[in-house]
Amino acid sequence: MTDFDKPHRMIPVTGGQLAYFRFGRGPDVVAVHGWPLHSATWRHLVPLLEDEVTIHLFDLPSAGQTQWRGPVGFETNAAALREAIDTLGLERYSLLAHDSGGVVARLLAASDPRVQGLVLAGSEIPGHHGALLRAYLFAAKVTPLALVWSLLLRVPAIRRSNIAYGTCFEDPRYTDGDFAKLFIEPMRSPHVAKGQLRLLRSFTFDFIDQLEDVHRRITAPTLCIWGDRDPFFPIEKARAMLPQFAGGAELVAIPGAKLFCHEDRPDEFATHARAFLCGKHAVLRASDHGQCSA
C-alpha cells in the first residue's frame, strides 16, 4: 500500500500550505479527494496507475495534513488547487476526482485550458438534492451533533450501518481496516473533525445546481465511473447529466459498487481510468507526452 505518512512537500498557496504527494512517471494526473477524506483515499489506486502516469495528490484545505487558515468552499478549494498546480509548473494535465472533489475538479476543468481530460466518480449532480446528502448537511451544521457523530463512528456497528459508511461500501466491514485508521480515528480530535466539517457548512444546493453551466465550459473529454448502487448520487441521474459536458462525456458502471468504488473496487476502477487516459481518447498518449502505452 502506498505510504502517505508524511507529505513529500508542503506547497504555499493563498490561505495556507497544501500537503502534496507525487507518485509514478509519465503524463501528469492530478487526483482530487472527496469528503471526509484526504489524499490517502487513493492509496490502492496509485500502485495500479503509477507505471504509466505521474499522479499528483493534494490534501485540500482543512483536510489531512494541509495547514490552513483561509476560507473553505468549492471555489476557494479550486483556486488553492490551481495555485498549487501553477507552482508545480504543470504544462498540461488530466484530473481524477471523487465525491465533493469532483466539484472542485469540474470548476478547475472549466477554467484551465491545460486540462486534457477529466475522470469523475460518484459526485454531485445538478438538480439532485438527495435525502442522504441533505441529512449529512443538516448534521454538519449542528456543531455538537456533528462532533458527537464523529466519535460514534469509532463504534464498528455504527460506522457499518446505513446511517454511516454502509451507504458507501459494498461490504461495510471495509471500514474496519486501514480506512478506519486513516479517516475515522483522526476524527477523535475536535480540530480534525471541525476542519472536515467546514466544507459541508459552506455547501448549498443552489451552487450545485449551477454546475450545469460549469459543464458547458468543460471542453476536455470526461469519463464518469459510477457504482450502480450508489445511494448518494444515483447512476441514472449521472447518465442524464452527460449531455451537459461540452467536450463530450461517457459513463461506465461498476456493478454492485456504491459511492466509494475507487476504495473497495480499485482494480476495476483503475482499468476504466487507464483505458480513458491512455486509450481511445488518448488525451495522454505516449506519442504526445509521457509513458502511456495503451
Describe this structure in words.
It is a single chain. With 294 residues, this protein is of the alpha/beta class. The chain contains 13 helices and nine strands. The chain has a domain of 189 residues: Rossmann fold. Strands 1, 2, 3, 4, 5, 6, 7, 8 and 9 form a nine-stranded mixed β-sheet that branches. Helix 11 links the parallel strand 8 and strand 9. The longest helix has 15 residues.
Which terms would index this structure?
single chain, alpha/beta, Rossmann fold, 13 helices, 294 residues
Largest sheet: 9 strands, mixed
Radius of gyration: 18 Å
- The unreliable regions are 285-289
CATH class of the domain at 9-127 and 209-278: Alpha Beta
Span of the ends, CA to CA = 24 Å
State the CATH topology of the domain at 9-127 and 209-278: Rossmann fold
Supply the helix-strand structural class.
Answer: alpha/beta
The count of strands amounts to: 9
CATH homologous superfamily heading of the domain at 9-127 and 209-278: Alpha/Beta hydrolase fold, catalytic domain
Mean pLDDT: 91
How helix-rich are the residues, as a percent range? 25-40%
Shape: globular
Output the helix-strand order: EEEHEEHEHEHHHHHHHEHEHH
Relative strand content: 15-25%
- The CATH architecture of the domain at 9-127 and 209-278 would be 3-Layer(aba) Sandwich
Tally of helical runs: 13
